[in-house]
Fold these 3 entries.
Entry 1:
Amino acid sequence: MRDMRERSTAEQQHEEQLRGASDGAGVRAYLLHRAKPHLPPWLGVGGAGLAGALGSLKWSESVAAGVGLTLASVALTGATWWAARSTSQQRRLHSAITVAAGSAWVTAACLAGPTAGPLPDLYLMGGPVVALSWNVRMLMRRSVDGAAGEGADKGLLEKVGLARAQIGAVKVDPNRVTAPIELEAGEQTNDDVTKSLSRLASALDLPTTAIRYQPDPSSARRGELVIVPEDMLAEAIEWMGPSNLGGSIAEPLVIGRYDDGSPLLLWLPGDPEAGRNSTHVLVAGVSGSGKGDTALNLLTEILSRCDVVVWMSDPKMFQDFGPLRPGLDWSVEGGSGTEVMVEAIKAAIPARTRWLGAHGYRQWLPEAAQTQTSPKHSCRKDGTACGCPGMPFLVAWMEEAANTLRALGDDAFTGIAQEARSAGIALVVSLQRPSYDQMSTSTRASLPSVIALGCDPRDEGFSLPEAVLDAGAHPGAWGNRRPGYCYTVSPGIPEDRYPSPGRTFNFTVRSVSVLEVLASWAQRNGATAGPVTAQAAASVAGQLYTGRAAPGTDQPAPAWAGEGEGEIEMDGGPLIDPEDTHLDPEADLPSAEPGDDAPLFGQDTGRKPSPEEARQLLAQALAEFESEGRMIVGPKDFTDWCDANGYSRPWVSARLKEAALEGRLEPTAQTGRWRIVPALTAA
């Protein structure tokens, strides 16, 4: 293919030179240039006549020469047939017939003379016919329209079992060759091309990832063959900072480049004008495939935008994302904190969709993040501008999600993945192996976008759609040997780009200082969650959700605090817990009861609390859990409490159900686990 491209370029330059001359010399040069490819057959005819004439002078009427010339003619014909075994059947037969006819005439001319009997007539009539047959063949191979026939590319297709395919006009771009292919009707399909890609790569001496086939959606026998001769991804490119600092999250995120040098782009929110849907993203790849750098590329692009907030769960204790953590609106390190975050996202979805619908948005748009000053997006019935605070886009990031899925179940994200897009929420799930024993099929089907890095060849079907694999995508060829190499499938990316490999930018030690500066910028200039999202999170997480830390401090701003009764005042206000407001500080303490003193040796322990006192103790335990940020509890969390108070876990389970009826607890997706409703919300 590379030779074809160089030859085509040279011929094009020569054509331009010939067209530049319009005088007689230029015309002669042009005609000679056009005639050159057709001269060899005629030279062969002339050579045969000359050989017959000269041979008759030496071997006329020689029996021995007759035997030798006959054997030579047969041997030459056989050698031609053998040498043409790698070409098409038509070319092989045409070559053998031509050599047999020419050598037979030369043998007869050498023995009997070129003018004997019918020999001159055969020469004058048969010679031009043979020469013209080759000229016609050449014209059919290289037509005026530029359609390819049995040229170099046709021979290449014959080698891989596609001899009857027709190649259209080849388009040559920098480091990219695109050739339209039309297969034989009724005999070949696009599947035949996809099955031959590996053999085609072998014939061109290229890696299998350098050749892709994009079928025409409207035809079963047409498509485009894309060849990238040079791997421009071999050299890693260091990350140099965000591509669009201060821009909108609706603008493309630049996370790397493709093998032809073009940028690798990704969109999260939808765009109704462009016909692009909002999306969730799956980042998948084996250990060592560059998943961490890929996530950093995506996260830095998100944090550099002005109308988005990020909630992140990372069971790896933010080993990769530590410098960026101050810029996150909410971050937890797995465990119960992740359980609470998942429940908070579920609570935020209806709150955000309700706000979008009330303000006339069918989906999240950048205008939704601004103060609502347009009557078109007003929640007032009179149609005047409402002035409501905006609601930024929300990215819910689940790093090392296999850990969370093991704890919460394989369908932990199913509801979020199915409903969050309409609420202006993008879910990012990162894990090594998105197999169906880790993630439910419903969740996987609800993640439209995927960044597929190197994987085990047997796991390719878990990451990429079958059509992309058929088109030539092969992440199993990389494994963990080429960190950052990936295929990206996402709305907004042209489908012919899906099987094109890309590579994300590389993060080094020098990048750490830039990441810290970016996190500081996000603290000062990034969006806040807004009252709708913050109150929804606080209704589930209570004090566990605090919002992003204020610039220059380690303590976050009180984003969870709401308005109305039950609000805890931070400056000069009451500091009494809401559940203690009914207590009279002037009342006398209750008198001692039997069993309140310490037991003597050999005696039973103190008295068992009454049912009412036990409920109060349970309420106190729930308040302690809430103050510690442990918002998801179950009977096993009360083991020490049961031992201290002499109650069993079944009794605790019954009391937890009573607390749920009273509104202090809410059930979670896991059986036997309850979410504490913050006391502030209950009040």
Entry 2:
Amino acid sequence: MKFCVDTDNKNSWYIGTNNFDAEMANKMETLMFQGNGYFGIRATSEERQLNERRNMFVSGTFDEFPSEVTELPNLPDLLNMEFKIDGETLSLAKGQIKGYHKYLNLKNGELVRKFSWLINGKRVDFKYSRFISMSDKHLLVSKVEIASDQDNLNIQVRSGIDGQQSNSETQHLMEGDKRLYEDKYLQLMEETQQSHIKFVFNARHNVYIDEVLLSEKPFINMGRRQIFANYDIHLNQGQHFSMTKYASVYTSIDRDVDQKTMAEKSVSRLKQNCAFNYDEQLRKSTKVWEKDIWQKNTVKISAKDIRPQVAINFARYQLAANTPRDTRMNIGAKGITGEGYKGHTFWDTEVFMLPYYIFTMPNVAHDLLRYRYHGLAGAHKKAQFNNYRGAQFPWEAAWPDDGESAPLWGSADIVTGEPMKIWSGFIEQHVTSDVVIAIMDYINATNDQNFAQKMGYEMILDAAIFWSSRLEYNRNQDRYEINDVIGPDEYKEHVDNNAYTNYTARWCLQKAIKVYNLIKTDYPNLYEKLDTKLDLTKNYADWLVKVNKIYLPQPNADGVIPENDQYLDKKIIDVSRYQVNNQLSSIFKDYNLSQINEMQITKQADVLLLIYLFGDLFSDEVKQSNWDYYEPKTTHDSSLSLSTHSILASDLNLDDSAYKFYERACETDLGIHAGKAAQGLHMAACGGVWNMTVEGFGGVRIENGKLKIEPHLPLAWDGLEYQITWHGSALKVKINNDKLAVEVIGKGINFISFGEEYQIPANSEIEITLPVIAEV
């Protein structure tokens, strides 16, 4: 496992670098991202650098530029601190840099950068520190400290709010008022052009010489979309300069402020925060990290190599920093770490990130699913546009009411030179099943009947109405098919009967039939309400006619399930040279998508994803046959692929393969290649690291509504500890090479392990000797 960041063998919460590498700067900006779910900032430096991506985003603030799809607008820069030392502008491209060290504390989100700048015979030492608060979601606190052995050193500082930012030159914001309160508090107001979301940005600076607060007022200058405070300081030998910058952002869609009084109230709140110094504010934020995040999802890996523990800490940190705590919002495919995918939500959340939250913080999982409930109107809109009924969830989702938010056109075709149409928003329809899979996993793991009755059952029934309307009857075969789709393997467009899509569509109908009978018998008031809303009586009859006639591709004589009707007839080529872990889809240097569509090449787990999610439907022999067939044909060009393969390899006792895929998955963002991380993190890969660790090696799975724990500890590890939640009880699991110990805190639970069912009474512990299983 090779990382592009340095690690510390004594501190698994540390990632850092001792080198300023301009070619890797964009990736480092992404990896050391800071956020609290409400807003986030890339780890750009306070002073400007060439080719940087100076991004700050607030979750859910989507805006649409004419002729483009909606996206999160890049917001004014609150980080900026520009220094002149004796007239020389600080730049890492000038002079000499000594002792450069930049690191992120994953445990509390503090970013620190230190270096000495040698210019014109002078040495000036800089230390920058900053964090985004977890205790006040609107607050950013940053600090700079400067020392030098020079006498009468002149320091000029320019810092404030710079609204001259864009999304790759697309401007979303209209300038509003600029204000100065009490000669100290800077304020800039802006508004999005199409969605008309109002923003208020505030900043204040406290400047100290040897810890004595300067009383002099700064010089304020205002420009177009800018307001800055300027200081002119003279530092004598042995003196120490520091400046703490308090900044905040508020929006008109916030639920904790009144937009009519937002400008004044936000300044008042910043005043309160300025009463606490940098260290005090950091301690307040750190306490929230510990209480609300780390105490709920312990994962400890016992191994000689620290990097697996660093990887799981990094993944959990990024999930916490990028997950909104507002049910009108969801996790973007790249979170709020960059402009990639425009902040849109995909199936990534339900299949790859929800397991982490379902098992560790079910309250967050509840809110992420509630986002889909808020999105039913948009799902109905999409279904109606496509002449279907029910809820067809969008492939790309932004604000929940918007419906489909996928772009229509992508990059140019290397053969034709013309833009390639993006078909996913039209025919990649399995996302509707993915939402139902997540709903059922949540209900099974939590037994949250309040959610089920208020939201979950309705979404399941509405999704089934869509699938029933989507089915196409084949008279010759007397069966229902689903033609012209894209499955999880996005290298196969316009295919018929994609196995994953067909199996999951039938499963959705089966769940809807069970829900119908349950609510009709046990919840008559709910049944009456949903019958009026969804015409359940008519749709139930339709489901019964169709459910057992949905065509499911069956294993052939070799045990291989056809990915779709056309796949097994296509040309086979050797894809090994394209299975390079750099996230660059190098196959497109040789072929266009139309050519790839005619070859047995798979982008990411498709049939194997079906087997992973619905393992109880297939025999071990069929699982192995499909692994042997499809994995060599898979390029793993998607960051979603590696974790699925690792977990399935664990299930198949392919221990060596499981760990190799695990290492590659951990390198998706942390690895040495530049890849696509400059555009933002791969949030599904972060979820995948937890999935591989706890579901794969830790053996946790939901099967037929029951909890299963069947560990497959890697040879490289001596032990694994983790904590999950099941039916409201906390389970502390400890695994070594031959023992499984499960402690329950709360009411008793049942679980299955290697064919045996175990009962653990309330607040007690059980220890099991693990069977010896030979690697295949």
Entry 3:
Amino acid sequence: MSEALLKNVQEMLNEEKWTRATLSNYSTNQFKELDVLLKEARDVRAYDDLKKLCDEHLVHTKNSIIALYLSGMIALSRQLIDDSALINLVTIFVDNHKWSIVKYLCERILDYGESKFALRTLAECYKNDNEETAIYNIWERLVKVDYEEADLAKSLGEYYEKQGKIEEAVDYYKKALHRYINKALFTNVREIWAKLIEYNKEDIDFFLHVQKKIAKNISKDKAVLLLNDVYVYCKEKGDIETAISICKIILQYDERDEPARKEITDCFRLKYAGHSQLEEYIRISNLTQKYRNVHEAITDFEKHIAFDKGNFVFHRTWGIGRIAKVQGDEIVIDFAKKREHSMSLKMAVNALQTISKGHIWVLKATKKKEELHDKVKEDPVWALKTVIRSFNNTCDIKHMKAELVPSILSSGEWTTWSGKARDILKADPSFGVSPDNIDIFTVRDRPISIEEKLYNEFKAERNFFDRAVTIRNYVAQKDVELDSEYFTEMFAYFSAYLRSKNQVSEFVVASYLLIKDLVGRYPYLGAGLSLNFIEIFEGIEDVPTLFLSLKDAKLKEEFIHHIQLFVPDWPDIYIKLFPYALTASIVTNLKKEGYEEKLVTLTQYCFENYRDHREIRDAVVWILKNLKDESWFEKAALTLERKLIVLIHILNITYREIENHRDTAENRKINKQVYTLLFKDDVLTKFIDEADPDTITRIYTLIEDVKDLDPADKLSLRNRVLQKNPTFKFLGDTEKTIVSRGLLVTMSRFEDKQRELAHIMDVDVPANSKEIGFALSLGDLRENAEYKAAKEKQDLLNSTAAKLKDEIERAQLFDPSTINLNRVSFGTKVLLANESNGENEEYTILGPWESDPDNRIISYLSPLGGAILNKKIGEKFNFSINDENVSYMVKEISAVAF
């Protein structure tokens, strides 16, 4: 089928060449026929061969209409960056004024996504046809995809302004303003700024945000020039706080700006008009004097102006106080524990921190705890604003907790409350984040849009993958504008990685996957970008390492999916990647495409090479948990004994890795999973129950070699073996189980003795030394009863400590896994038949530290313990008690539960 199609195209190309068809003979119908041919080529998967045929023809006939169209459309459908064929084709018909064909070709290009070239050319077509409405529609599309296009954005603003659609006009004027700033065209910036002041003067945050870009991209002087317009508006409407902020910005740019210095002084007079010491504080701060640094003067004034009757202050020793009166250079303050405290104003400014009456410290000092508790719980928004504003409008969650727990909320209440608070901080437009730290929250004087809120979070994030999450959250918002300056800057951050692919890193791959997803939903975003996965993939030096570096689950899944879509040898890549990915999609896709033999090979590889890499050990566990019931798994020919041996080895390896602090978290996870498979799921015990002695010996020896395994688990397995095989002999078993030297002790009693010794040395001895010192201070030692008693106690403590040290040094910790139920030994319970009186007696054999005769717990060093020790079931012996000879027989031996 494809051969016939290619032959047909070859004939068409030859005919075109031989007949030298003129452009006047072409119409849109010919291109529609070529579209049908393209569909056929796609259906029979002949795109590659068809493009190759056309490209070879263009080498000799560079203006072939058929070859240019077919090659260009195939490249476009593949999202290849080379669009020269279609550009050449369109240019040919533009030069010959064939506007209907030009329009058709541009619309076909736009079927595959927005194109700056196609949109500009289409606008020319509509201009020739005097279709004004259509032109503006195209311009709107062009402004969305061309982030440098400023003049058209301005024209659209003027267009909507004439129509009275001010909201739309403002939107395009904002776009034009940002783009003119980027181009550093101040004349245009000032013109648009004036328009926005006229129509959008309430959006103060916008102007304050944009002026920063003007100062950076053009000059600070130009920013000051424009800020004065906003200042005049704010002062006229009575927004003195914002007016003061603008003056401070202007003075930051130029501290010698005398008009700004005068204006901020006027604003301070308006803000503090009712302050009793206003003019005095302006005077002593030298706010109006040119010789004083303006920033120092402002700081000085703002420190002083906070000191007025009724205001609150904080002292690090006396706590919260309220200013009772201010008289000249003297200030009187009422502290809770120091009423009517007087100090000089200069000392107060240096020693006290002024705080508002709404400060959380003031509220805690002046309100009942129950009242404040209920208010915080019932109104978390109020509580959040109160705490954040209390600390210069910057506060993180940790600081909030310190202020509320336990003084207002209990730890339990905080857990629930903080969850609600985090949701509020994320969604409420009254809150924002610091542009320098994502963990620092602020309160907004004016509500912030969700787009700007997410943009600020994006700027505050320092981690690439956190930014990827933020831009996805941005796009997920309803009715979000993807041509806004916020999104443009975020998108440019990722697209920049695609323009510098000299070294393919996880950031390049992640940017490609993220942008590819966005372009799939919004095709015009891909204009001018090269989105070729194969080209990127071939630049990856180590696929598994890069995969692990993708710290985003969604991007990892997309990466795996793209490998299957675009990489010819994807099954081999999947096999190489699997131990690091451990995802069901890899197994599913390989199985679905008939690559079960590769899965068998992969499984065998993991079970043979698990010692080499942690990821392969992780893969072994994953395979056993998720794939052991697959039909192909039996082909791996892994016996149950083989699986158990591998798991026991992995258990031992992970214990060692944890001890050596290597990949501790990951090794703990693997260790826990293996332990569960072996012991909690009873896989090991069920296998032991049916195994032959040689196999049991091999498995138990491996378990015994796992040093860090809980001795109780070893003991449990040992007893299970003996229950099923009472005559089984373990390697290393001896006739005697008690060592001749030292003192056998249990771990719990050993720790008790250590604590007892530590208490004597750390508590009793120092206390005794103080007693002796006090007794010495009383004088004559001959009649000093306190001194004698203290010295006697000292002797007792020293002898007790010495004895404990000796016992601890001689102590040998008992390993429960060494209990041998073939004989009576340390850690066993023994049931004796007293043949003298016909009764049964049960004893627990432990050491002298654990001995408790009343509960029939006896030491192996005691006379009776020594007589019982090492006896077997059925063995008889005699023991003398109070000159009475008693005959015993051992009936049962069992292990003590530790």
